[in-house]
Amino acid sequence: MQQAPDFVHLHVHSFYSMMRGASSPSALCREAKKAGFTRLALTDTNGIYGLMNFLDAARENGIKPIVGASIEEREASAVILAKTVPGYEILCDLITRLHTEKDFFLAASLPEKSRDIVLISENPELVKGLKERFECYLEIVPGPKDRKLIEAAKSIGVRPVASNAVHFAHEEDYPLYRLARAIGLNKTLGTLSDEDAAAPGRWLKSAEGMAAHFPNCPEALANAASIARSCQTSWDNFRTVFPYYRDKEEDHFRLLLSKCRKGISWRFGQTNNAVEQRLEEELDLIQSKGFVDYFLVVADIVRRRPIHCGRGSGAASLVSYLLGITHVDPIRHKLLFGRFLNPERKDLPDIDVDFPWDERDALFSEIRTFYGDERVALVSNHVGFGARASVREVAKVFGIPPAEIKEVTRRMNYWASPDNLWEHVKTYPKFRNFQLDPPWPEIIDLASRLESLPRNIGTHCGGVVLVPDRVRRYVPVQFSAKGVPIIQWEKDQTEKAGLVKIDLLGNRTLAVIRDALAAIRENTGQSLDYPNLNPADDQPTIDLIKRGDTIGVFYLESPSMRLLLEKSQKGDFDHLVIHSSIIRPAANRYIQEYIRRIHGEPYEPLHPSIKEILAENYGILVYQEDVVQVAMIMAGFTWGEADALRKIIGKKSREQLSSYRERFAQGCARNGISSEVVNKVWEMFISFSGYSFCKPHSASYAMVSLKSAYLKNHHPAEFMAAVISNGGGYYSTFAYVSEARRMGLAVEGPDINKSRMAWTGKEKAVRVGLQQLHAIRRDSVEAILRERDRGGPFVSIEDFLRRVTIHPSDAAALARSGSLDCISGGLNHPRLLWYIESWLNRFSGSRKGASKAPNIQKTAFTPRAASLKVPALLDFADLEKWHHEWETLGFVLSVHPLRLADPFFRSIRRPLVSARDFQKYIGQKIWVKAWPISRKEVYTKKGDEMEFFTFEDETGIFETVFFPKSFSRFCQDLDMAHAYLLQGRVASEFGVVSLNVDYAYRVPERVR
Amino acid sequence: MIRNIVHIGISNFCAAVEELRRPELKKRPLVLAEPGDRSVIQGVNGIARKEGLFEGMPLSRARRICRRIQVVPSDYYYYRERHREIVREFARFSPLVEGTSPGGYFIDITGTRRLWGPGPDTACLMEKEIAGQMGLHAHIGLASNKLVSQVAANCADAGDLSFIFPGNEEPFLAPLPLHLLPGVGQVTLSRLAGFNVQKIGQLASFSLDMLSGVFGGTAGRLLKISRGIDPAPVLPSRKTKRFSLAKVLDRDEIDLDLLESILFRQIEEAGWGLRRHNRRPGQLRLEIRYADGMSVEARKKLPPQVVESDRLLFRSILPLFHKLFCRRVAIRRIILEFSDLAMPLGQLSFFTWEKDPRQKDRILQTALDGIREKFGKQIISWGGDG
Questions:
Q1: What CA–CA distance (Å, rounded) separates A456 from A470?
Q2: Are the CB atoms for A454 and A18 separated by under 8 Å?
Q3: pLDDT at residue A852 above 50?
Q4: Do A188 and B205 touch (CB under 8 A)?
Q5: In this structure, how many other beta carbons lie within 10 angstroms of the beta carbon of residue A786?
Q6: How many domains does chain B have?
Q7: Domain coordinates of chain A in residue numbers?
Q8: In this model, does residue A951 exceed pLDDT 60?
Q9: CATH value at residue B209
């Protein structure tokens, strides 16, 4: 048998070339192994976005990985391979410069001379120029030009190297590759030209297949193999890189210790045994694991922003508490440090800290200036295709009009993912009676293949890496769309590469608290301090939580949480910690059990051995630590094993679970525990799948919840204004407005002289902020506010128009929203609108845009408003006015939006029950009018879809359930912008009523 | 002199004509549209309109709204014939008959009193004529100008006459909603609604000064029509000669190669027709309609003699097509329309030794046409890209 020719693929693109490749690194490695290769290079376009995944895949398949990148700039392109670790650093530096420097030229940006990299290019000019400086080869790709290039190699005196410039693993992947190119270039398959996409032959051919292309130049193949042999292939020893603290003090451990000592006197007044013992334990571990600097850096960062919340497992640490990173006493609340740092823990834990969402960018740039630009970068996020996006993008390639695409994508739900698209389309109730005509089947087929293809990189929500020297030594850095430096790896690969990250996350509630505190200070002079605000013993606050009046309160506002609060009648700190952990997707039946036990139902502990540790949780496993501890006690697992079990439960991997189940049962059997108990405990373990929390995290958040509940109770106006201004809550603005009304607050409309940008609250009223006017350009509003600050309140409409340069459509929206009523001088809205339009027509020259308008209104010849004649126009009807409010503010301000459907409800002959009277109708069928507030789709145990819907009417808010039968019947009719007529049976549980809907009718008048 | 203008309006003309031809279609919603899922409604009867169907609505949507519709392919030539018949009928009453569209007619009967009697009688007589002869029932309006007579007709029931005495135009219009006023488009209508102006009378009450403050140059026209002033004469319709070819694609298509070949076939068709009629077009209008209903068009002056060869014609039209087709949305329909048709009077070359560069193309085309004429159009076609 003839021996296979010696050849290695040195120019290979994976899908990490961002729409320039179609296969994953693992698919490439698998294919390479099948084809008999032992070495393989990965050279993605302008990056090493998938390096860590490639190294993993190579290890799994027994392939020796070669690291490189394909550098493509305007003038030249070349493949650069790293022969050594210094070569890798050169590569990272080069890629960084490519992304960050404007006048990047490959030849000019390469180092003077280096033996650590290999350069391969199809461009004879480039190779000729660089051959003295580096090891250079001329790349010969099979095709019409190959003979000429072999000649060229001879004439300039460099060696040719064979390559197939691979863009996909298998020849059958070509259509997927073309699709990715079309999406990437915003083109259609029909308009994709030859230059836009590589030829169909650019797949991972076997060595024989490649040899067939080079009968005339076998040395080109041999050269590829010899380059591969000369490159380093053991890349497994990426060392851990910790953040580095900068200080005059040389001994950082001593520094940490002294800071902790100061912390003790701040937090506890004086030290005691428990504290000393815990501190010593923690500091030992921190030092041995190398986390000293990490803590110092985080402490330094949180010091810069007083309002923050350390969370996650890091909150279990006394050191974080002493350094002011977290605010929950871990000793008092029995938080286990082992969840964070543990002698057995191999992966690197991180501390997560929340900051007000709008302060994060500024904080990050502060860190950059303090620690140095080169040392700091954010972790990136590889943005892929969700089900909707993949369908949308493929449909665009097929030229489907946007409206038609939306008809399909709006039917898909949150759980659809590209790999289950067909199943989704066939079984999901919203697709019933919806014909998918050609070419839709083809689109769905292709869209389902786009799964996991990264499309571009964005910024991770908070991960920061901070290294001792320069980030670009470890990984290439580029700029995000906002101009922030980000590294090319997402969080998993960052962790694999040993870069320890700090998570600085944005949190809206912290901003809500900050704004509310500022407003309270301004309105009352009362100064509340965030860190010292501890309302754990404030009875009115606890009562508010007990009642479930928690709309707007951090973490406690979702309908399911409010129901839990009402049913359990518990609102103290300890119970809040349990509440926020037990609300998990898979733990529904244990929630019921939990409520029963709270109300005094007796229970047997799962097993005597774990009675103690579950006592505070009513014998139910609530936290992640409970799983770990129970596994350790009952089955004799080591901490490492038990923690691995916890992680696997979270990831829902079936095979691994069953092996752990076996081991757990065996361990329990050794301790004489019956299989019945094992089954019960295991079932509870499974309720931790999806997501779950550790106790320190819940405790940290429970504290924030309490603080915001305190503000809601004692300073309702300031609090609700801050909630609405910061946005991003569970509910819509309208729902919060309704809630404010239920709290007895007056909601005042926008006012050009009184409103600020944000919503404001004082005493018993909140006022709409000008930010709420969606239809108006942001800079117009800013200009108005600037002018008001400068020249005082506007005295008349004429004064307003003269002082502010404003676009006619903005002025009209202001008038329609009622913002100008205070200066209208008695004109009704139609007359006011007429006045504005004719004023602007006459005095600002152009109707089209204020930008073009000369500033006539600012000249000395002030026009006389009296000369403007406004006809006598009738005022708008109420209904019309409400519509205007809806258009300009996004909700109806003057009345409840159900009034818009009054004509319909008047025609209903049946008696309609108000929300506040539900208690009187328990077990009965009733008809109600309803305005949707929020919705949540869930699956039943059998896998059928059902939905929890929150509605309200003029008298109150109420929860409803659409069980699978009514869901499949009405789901196509349900949306958030209509009034509904519902019929259903009132159910009551623990004194809390809800409505099980049998019939829903959408009132046809659509509110625009 | 006070004019007497009659407006006769037959609502849902095409559907009404179709119902007359096939009485079994009456009493159920009727829709005129090409068969096929993707076609668009071209006409509806009164019952269908009440169900919420209207012209221009996709048939598939109409089926979803109303399941019991009957769909009949629209027979445009037949409707046009009926329309011309009606125009001819009215021409007996007055030489000034304007058939604006099938189902809408203005007749100027000023000065026919001694011949036909008083205006209202004449108008009724006209209605009776078409009712008797063709079974079509019309709304009749009679007023001193086209605008008011049209509004008047719209206010009358089928078979009834609405006569506005001269001088009463403004009071007649005043209480009517603005959308009944011809010449006020959707944009103006919604702007006026923005000032809570709903009735024609409100508009008429404004002073020119006030109105032009907001509506600028169009204020004068708005005021005039709102007061029922319309000096426009009744113009017997004239027809400009056009040659147009519309092609609705079998499925929405976005592949450029395929689209070009479709366009080429369409141009071949057009070239054949033009040469058969011995016409040379001076201007071309190309319109493409995307799958989402948006359409774009462009015009181009065609060089003389280009019609002599399909290939030349294609080459001069293709850049226009590329310019138009720039969205990432599939195409549903392509329309080619040639106008300024003239006889092909070519100047022969003065110097016989000079070779006409198009000579080859012309000879080839003549040969192709000859073969097609003899053996059928499909018998020969271009290979590759023409």
A1: 24
A2: yes
A3: no
A4: no
A5: 11
A6: 3
A7: 15-230, 252-380+458-508, 385-451, 552-710, 745-889, 897-1002
A8: yes
A9: 1.10.150.20
Mean pLDDT of B124-137: 89
Alpha-carbon gap, residue A625 to A695, rounded angstroms: 7
Residue A436, token pair as written in the block: 């998918």
| Mean pLDDT (whole number) for B52-69 | 84
Q: Residue range A539-543: average pLDDT?
A: 93
- The CATH number corresponding to A15-230 among 3.40.30.10, 3.40.50.300, 3.40.50.11810, 3.20.20.140 equals 3.20.20.140
DSSP symbol at B342 = B
| DSSP sequence for A483-537 | S-EEESS-HHHHHHTTB-EEEEEEEHHHHHHHHHHHHHHHHH-----TTT--GGG
Q: Based on the fold, state whether residues B7 and B141 are members of the same structural domain.
A: yes
- CB-nearest partner of B197 from A397, A812, A873: A873
pLDDT tens by residue, A63-77: 999 999 999 988 788
Which of B38, B190, B214 to mutate to test binding with chain A, by most A CBs within 10 Å of its CB?
B214
| Range(s) of the domain holding residue B40 | 1-164
Task: Name the minimum distance, in Å, from the CA of B124 to any CA of chain A.
Answer: 40
- Among the residue ranges A568-577, A989-998, B30-39, the one predicted with the least confidence is B30-39
- The gap between the terminal CA atoms of chain B, to the nearest Å, is 63
Span B304-355, pLDDT tens digits: 777 778 888 888 889 899 888 877 778 888 888 888 888 876 666 677 677 7
In tens, the pLDDT along A365-392 reads 999 999 888 899 999 999 888 788 888 8
Whether the predicted pLDDT of A47 surpasses 90: yes
**Max Cα distance, chain A (Å):** 104
B293 to chain A: nearest residue by CA? A401
- B383 domain residue, yes or no: no
| Same-domain check for residues B205 and B276 | no
Instruction: Tell me the CATH number at B256.
Output: 3.30.1490.100
Residue A351 has φ and ψ, to the nearest 5°, of -95, 130
* Chain B residues near any Cβ of chain A (below 8 Å): 37, 194-197, 202, 205-207, 209-210, 213-214, 216, 251-259, 290-294, 328-331
Enter the tokens of residue A44.
């993605």
Q: What is the CATH number of domain A897-1002?
A: 2.40.50.140
Bridge partners (DSSP) listed for residue B290 = B331
In angstroms, the CA B212 to CA B206 distance is 10
Question: If you measure CA to CA, which chain B residue comes closest to A874?
Answer: B196
Residue owning tokens 């509004």: B151
